[in-house]
Amino acid sequence: MRPLLLAGLFACTSAASALAHDVTVETAAGATEVPHAPESVVVFDPAAIDTIASLGQPIAGLPSPLYLDGIDKVKTSAEVVGTLFEPDFEALAVMQPDLIVVGGRSSAQREPLSQIAPTIDMTIWGEDMVAQARDRIAAFGTLFDKQDEATTLTEALDAKIEEARAAVEGKGDGLIILTNGGKISAYGANSRFGWLHGALDLPEAHPGLSDDTHGQAISFEFIAETDPDWLLVIDRAAAIGADGEAAASTLDNPLVARSTAAQEGQIVYLDAAPMYVSGGGASSMMHTLDEIISAFGGASES
Question: What's the whole-model pTM score?
Answer without folding.
Answer: 0.90
